[in-house]
UniProtKB/TrEMBL annotation:
Pfam families associated with the record: p450
Single GO MF descriptor: monooxygenase activity
Protein name as it appears in the record: Cytochrome P450
Protein species of origin: Triticum turgidum subsp. durum (Durum wheat)
SUPFAM superfamilies assigned to the protein according to its UniProt record, in alphabetical order: Cytochrome P450
Keyword Membrane part of the UniProt annotation: yes
Amino acid sequence: SSRAEKLYSKLPSPPFKLPLIGHLHLVGSLPHVALRDLATKHGPDVMLIRLGVVPTLVVSSPRAAKAVLRTYDHLFASRPHSPVGDILFSGSTNIAFAPYGDYWRQLRKIVTTHLLSARKAVLGRLPREAGRNKMFRELLEINSKLLGGFILTDFFPSLARLDMASGKAVKQKKIWDDLLDDLIDKHASKTVMDEDEQDFIDVLLSVQQDYGLTKDNIKAILMDMFEAGTDTTYVSLDYAMAELMRNPRAMTKLQAEVRSCVTKGKEMVTEEDLASMSYLKAVMKEAMRLHPSGALLIPHLSVADCEVEGYAIPSGTRLMVNAWALGRDPTCWENAEEFMPERFLEGAMDAACDFQGNDFRFLPFGSGRRICPGITFAAVTFEIILANLIYHFNWELPEGSPGVDMTEEYGIDVHRKVKLLLVPRMV
Ligand code: HEM
């Protein structure tokens, strides 16, 4: 509307806006980096960019992040409509894309009370038929590209039906459907079992009637869990290993801690051993500070007018919070670009910093109503896997390796482009 346009025109905004595509040409292949650089010059707290026809508020300072994710969290807790999300998640009926409202609230309740409270690993109990895991990985990778937030359909809604991404999404959805229908049917025909043996699918089926979920709803939730619960954790682990290989001093320290905290002779590190591993937890935080896999979180959408940093923001504004930029802001972190897990240890400067959304410099899981519901699950998974990798092996780069390549690639999660190739040596 012309009123909204008037308000948008008052916000700081980068120059070089083009007709139709807006600032899209400035975003490039690594949007979190490009947006940080643009923000530094044109709007360090908030700036307005036009992605195609869509006005988007980009938040890049802790103070502004606190305004949109705490003070006005309730007003920014919705999601923009995504044509690709509609196709993949049957009308965006998954948690991550559902608009703010009763349906979303109910799904959050289901996952927090039934799925993520218990210790159930999503992939651990999937059938391991040949080829299936590989197919899952490929599906997840394509999904990630489709959902990354910088695809044409999102910014030129009128083109949605013509766009390639939609075509790909339709194909993609068909493959997911076949896979999930088969899994759900197999689970539905199973006889009652021990509660401990239930996986995510069993649990969802057991509450399906209470919550009035359709099969399509269940499939959308499962895709969310696979998407959010596997790649993000895996990417964070990959970054932690990559940083440890680049920082042998930190690796040595972690090895010493892990090996001393586990009872001698024990075969695996288990959850009970983790409590005393403070350096391990610091390594996890530091890897996520430098490499939050959701670099720009998931886009939010405002549902009412409000004022941020002195600017009036109209209802219906898309919001991106640059968590990657917050974690590297040289004005709020000492040696911001360096991998220094020590900063999070007791007695150090950032000892009190957690990733529960209370410290607005550090938002790898977001904050407020849309905060990741999988934090605890992700942290335990991360710690247990990294601790076991370190407990059993010394890791080396292959002979003649030029070192670890940290080049990034953007998708719904930001990941390293080149696979990490390491040689394990039994301890
Ligand atoms: C290291 C691992 C993980 C990271 C870095 C991560 C990060 C995030 C981020 C940044 C968001 C968006 C927050 C926002 O929009 O403001 C998010 C949302 C979400 N995450 Fe995670 N996540 C991880 C693991 C998991 C796991 C293990 C699960 C579940 C199995 C999960 C489920 C979800 C769901 C369902 C949402 C959408 C929430 C909503 O829109 O209400 N995540 N996560």
